[in-house]
Specification:
Layout (H helix, E strand, L loop, with lengths): L21 H11 L12 H14 L3 E7 L15 H13 L4 E7 L6 H4 L1 H4 L8 E5 H5 L5 H13 L2 H8 L23 H11 L39 H4 L1
Helix pairs in contact: 2-3
């Protein structure tokens, strides 16, 4: 994405639909990354709004997990002010607080994460506290057993979920208290190279037509192009090719 463009959501697939489990998501991510050119500026607003749109369609509780190696873009912004990307992300978080949706932000790498760690302080009043930031790298750097690190990460990521879920049970759909629905969000398709690879992988195998000898003068059975896609079990030919054979 070029610097002058805004962040948008990108579909993982146009064929397979929803991914099943973390391993499938990770596998798909690794498959797509070589075909992408990633760059800033960074905003989490589009993915939050996309999650809101999904929740809006069913009004069932969801947890949005954002895994990122950097915080929301903040460049040449005076102290006490917010960048356009920060404003958009905060607005999306506030909107999400009116839906049965929890947001867990997982920071991977050396950040910087100062903005994310203090993000809650910049967010105005919400229907409930729906945002949690977890510094994965700091947890994994601790000098302890891996099982304890994994348990600490799980606790940090999920510790607020029970209270958040309880809070969402008191929420009502937007139209019930005069707010507009966010509606469908425009999701960009995968890169053309990825779509072409998917189509090739999911294409049915080519139908092999084998000839059958009927006598010495005919070595290959002629196949009717009309009946090819809708084969029929007939004792005699379909009649479509009679004028070619006469």
């Amino acid at each position: 994405m070029q610097p002058h463009m805004t962040t948008q959501c990108l579909a993982f697939s146009l064929i397979s639909g929803l991914a099943c489990g973390f391993e499938e998501v990770l596998s798909r991510y690794r498959f797509m990354v070589p075909h992408l050119n990633l760059s800033g500026p960074t905003s989490f607003a589009p993915v939050i709004n996309a999650a809101i749109s999904i929740v809006e369609s069913s009004w069932q509780y969801h947890v949005l997990v954002i895994i990122a190696d950097g915080q929301v873009t903040r460049t040449n912004v005076p102290a006490g002010k917010l960048s356009p990307q920060e404003e958009a992300t905060i607005d999306a978080i506030v909107t999400a607080s009116h839906y049965p949706l929890s947001i867990v932000m997982v920071g991977i790498g050396d950040g910087p994460w100062d903005s994310m760690q203090h993000f809650d302080d910049c967010i105005p009043e919400r229907a409930f506290d729906n945002f949690q930031f977890v510094n994965f790298t700091d947890i994994m750097k601790s000098q302890t057993e891996m099982s304890k690190k994994e348990a600490a990460f799980a606790l940090a990521a999920l510790m607020e979920i029970p209270l958040q879920y309880t809070a969402t049970q008191k929420l009502y759909a937007p139209e019930q208290h005069g707010r507009d629905r966010i509606g469908a969000i425009n999701i960009l398709p995968p890169p053309r190279a990825v779509v072409e690879l998917d189509n090739a992988a999911n294409a049915p195998p080519a139908r092999e037509i084998t000839g059958k000898s009927t006598d010495d003068s005919v070595s290959t059975e002629q196949v009717c192009p009309i009946c090819l896609t809708n084969p029929k079990d007939m004792a005699f030919q379909c009649g479509h090719l009679v004028h070619f054979l006469s």
